[in-house]
Design brief:
The chain has helices at 21-28, 31-37, 45-63, 108-122, 138-146; strands at residues 6-7, 11-15, 67-72, 78-85, 94-99, 128-133, 150-155, 164-170. The chain is of the alpha+beta class and 176 residues long.
Length: 176
């Protein structure tokens, strides 16, 4: 399957691959990732590679989209990830994002996620997106709202006690 690269003004988004194990290891062990998204128990580069192989690649192969590595065009630096996920407990595909600490708050999340949503509506045929976040993650809530998603209700995912804020947006006539 040909690797689809999505381009924005400052960023390149490409499907995550096992080549990104070192990056996923760093990202998934960053303090905000563990605090707001959760500890995925990735303690080694090999764990990261297995996580990519078992969690990301099957969805990309099945649906043609999934989790994307975000790189800056100007210097090729890997800065974060954005993805469209099929999640247990959610009926609507979920848009999610995470960044290394030094790249948070620079508008990359909005740039990457809005482009991926646009592609999701136009090319992947999706009609709606959802997003979930914790009550404590104010910066994520702001980004989700900036992307046009509206708060709907509190939800809990299977095997997780924590209540999450659930947002949703439907494809509008303008985005078609």
């Amino acid at each position: 399957m040909e690797k689809q690269i999505i381009e924005t003004e400052r960023l390149l988004l490409e499907p995550m691959s096992t080549d990104d194990s070192q990056f996923i290891f760093e990202l998934y062990n960053s303090p905000n990732f563990i605090r707001f998204i959760g500890d995925r128990n990735i303690k080694t580069i090999a764990d990261a590679e297995n996580y990519i192989r078992n969690r990301f690649l099957p969805q990309i192969e099945k649906l043609g989209y999934g989790n994307y590595l975000i790189t800056k065009k100007e210097d090729g630096k890997k800065i974060g990830s954005v993805g469209i996920f099929e999640r247990d407990g959610l009926e609507v595909h979920d848009i999610g994002f995470s960044f290394l600490p030094e790249f948070e708050g620079k508008g990359y999340g909005c740039e990457a996620a809005s482009k991926l949503m646009e592609v999701g509506f136009k090319e992947f045929g999706l009609k709606k997106f959802s997003a979930i976040t914790t009550k404590e993650n104010i910066s994520s809530q702001k980004l989700i709202e900036k992307l046009g998603l509206k708060f709907q209700k509190m939800v809990s995912l299977p095997n997780d006690e924590e209540e999450l804020m659930y947002y949703e947006v439907e494809q509008s006539a303008e985005s078609m």
